[in-house]
């Protein structure tokens, strides 16, 4: 059933402006015949000495790191292992609030004391700006116990932070810096993209090969220039990553590395396509795909132009735009939130794909008549925290309708997916602003997720 459904979709003509980055164009016909286990001559991912060691050494060289660890459970396992390796029980960590759920799960499992940094919003766009070095320094000065800082760069929308300055601030205060760089695996391969996190001085970073490069879903790398950290990573990956790693996925990493060794022309063509698309999209009158104007805001350090943020400017919602592109033009985007939708591109996109998207946006733009929607969803301030995540989860609780839970303490995460960033985490107080935002998002058709039941039911302490 699933196989047939996937096969039919692959031949349906729908163009993928979403992950994975290979855009279904590889054609290598991988699967069953190369799906093996750790038989003689094929090495062991958790103790590599042969072909898998060679694979990881090649990855490290290509990505400018001293050590690279191949991951077959996605960036998620890299985040879990790295946070565990870089902290001790009950350590204090500073987390940028727009971090992925895996970061919070790592804090939960390691019983960490969490401090949060809420990035600014870019104008009224509803998009988070860069994490500023000054804000990191303020938090480190206020809480000298912080031993690890965790930020996401680039974000889902491609916003990049000043890793070099943030790393310097962290090290000056005796803290390490870990960067969730899942969406930036392509950065080292063209000067048209920002520098990578490890090149900027981060102690470690995780990248998802499958998001923006020709590699299969779940393939990623954990990178570091610190040999001592590398030994700790190896130990923690043996805890968190499967003991039966897929050779199909590892072969996909190998093929991806082959591609990257000879990718200069492909990346040149990719950036030319992006530049041509932005130039053509500048003629849109109602919708907009900003290349410079929005992102030149003072609180954006840099940006990945491969993330096409399509803003509706009140003429429709991002979800309505995404639905129209799917139903009328057979274009599937990555996500929609508030006033914008996101088309994720990669080095494997084609002229035809960009042309189809541009024609569709021009037609939809011509149909826009009158602003009908609020321009953005205002981000929430940080909720009041009553207790650490692990303590809240361990507390006695009860299920309730969240609309009756104002003033109560949550025992679980509430998030919109995608992008999977929690609006509240266990141990925080449910307030009126959160309830109003959740109501607005639900009314606009966004999928709201909790941990233990179907929204609007949630577990609270009590």
How would you describe what is shown here?
This protein is of the alpha/beta class. Helices cover 34% and strands 17% of the residues. The chain has 14 helices and 19 strands. The chain has helices spanning 2-10, 51-62, 74-85, 101-109, 133-142, 163-172, 209-212, 227-240, 247-261, 264-281, 318-329, 351-366, 389-394, 432-443; strands at residues 15-17, 67-71, 92-96, 113-117, 146-152, 159-160, 176-180, 204-208, 220-224, 302-303, 307-311, 331-333, 335-337, 340-344, 397-401, 414-416, 421-424, 448-449, 457-461. The strands form six sheets. A seven-stranded mixed β-sheet has the order 2-9-8-7-5-3-4, with helices on both faces. It has a three-stranded antiparallel β-sheet with strand order 11-14-13. A three-stranded antiparallel β-sheet has the order 17-16-18. Strand 13 and strand 14 (340-344) form a beta hairpin. Helix 2 (51-62) packs across helix 9 and helix 5 runs parallel beside helix 6. The longest helix has 18 residues, at 264-281. The two termini are 43 Å apart. The relative contact order is 0.13. The model has no long low-confidence stretch (mean pLDDT 92).
Produce a short descriptive summary.
The protein is of the alpha/beta class. It has 14 helices and 19 strands.
Task: Note the main attributes of this structure.
seven-stranded mixed β-sheet; three-stranded antiparallel β-sheet; 34% helix; 17% strand; globular
């Amino acid at each position: 059933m699933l196989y047939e459904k996937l096969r039919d979709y692959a031949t349906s003509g729908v163009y993928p402006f979403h992950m994975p980055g290979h855009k279904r164009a590889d054609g290598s016909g991988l699967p069953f015949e190369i799906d093996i286990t750790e038989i003689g001559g094929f090495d062991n991912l958790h103790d590599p000495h042969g072909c898998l060691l060679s694979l990881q050494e090649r990855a490290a060289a290509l990505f400018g790191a001293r050590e690279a660890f191949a991951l077959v459970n996605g960036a998620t396992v890299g985040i879990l292992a790295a946070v565990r390796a870089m902290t001790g029980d009950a350590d204090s960590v500073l987390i940028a609030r727009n971090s992925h759920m895996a970061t919070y799960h790592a804090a939960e499992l390691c019983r960490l004391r969490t401090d949060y940094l809420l990035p600014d919003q870019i104008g009224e766009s509803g998009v988070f700006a860069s994490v500023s070095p000054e804000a990191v320094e303020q938090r480190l000065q206020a809480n000298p116990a912080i031993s690890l800082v965790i930020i996401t760069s680039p974000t889902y929308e491609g916003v990049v932070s000043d890793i070099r300055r943030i790393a310097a601030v962290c090290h000056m205060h005796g803290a390490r810096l870990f960067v969730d760089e899942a969406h930036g695996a392509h950065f080292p391969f063209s000067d048209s993209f920002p520098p990578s996190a490890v090149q900027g001085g981060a102690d470690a970073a995780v990248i998802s090969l499958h998001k923006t490069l020709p590699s299969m879903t779940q393939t990623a790398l954990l990178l570091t220039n610190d040999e001592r950290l590398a030994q700790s990573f190896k130990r923690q990956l043996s805890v968190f990553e499967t003991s039966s790693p897929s050779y199909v996925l590892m072969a996909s990493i190998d093929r991806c590395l082959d591609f990257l060794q000879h990718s200069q022309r492909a990346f040149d063509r990719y950036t030319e396509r992006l530049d041509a698309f932005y130039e053509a999209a500048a003629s849109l009158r109602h919708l907009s795909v900003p290349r410079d104007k929005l992102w030149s805001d003072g609180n954006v350090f840099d940006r990945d132009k491969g993330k096409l943020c399509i803003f509706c400017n009140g003429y429709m919602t991002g979800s309505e735009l995404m639905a129209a592109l799917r139903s009328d033009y057979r274009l599937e985007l990555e996500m929609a939130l508030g006033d914008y939708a996101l088309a994720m591109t990669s080095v494997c996109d084609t002229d035809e794909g960009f042309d189809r998207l541009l024609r569709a946006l021009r037609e939809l733009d011509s149909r826009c008549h009158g602003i009908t929607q609020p321009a953005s969803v205002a981000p929430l301030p940080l909720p009041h925290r009553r207790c650490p995540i692990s303590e809240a989860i361990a507390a006695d609780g009860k299920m309730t309708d969240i609309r009756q839970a104002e003033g109560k303490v949550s025992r679980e995460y509430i998030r919109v997916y995608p992008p999977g960033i929690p609006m509240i985490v266990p141990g925080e107080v449910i307030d009126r602003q959160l309830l109003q935002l959740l109501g607005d998002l639900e009314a606009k058709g966004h999928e709201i997720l909790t941990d233990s039941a179907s929204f609007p039911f949630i577990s609270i302490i009590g």
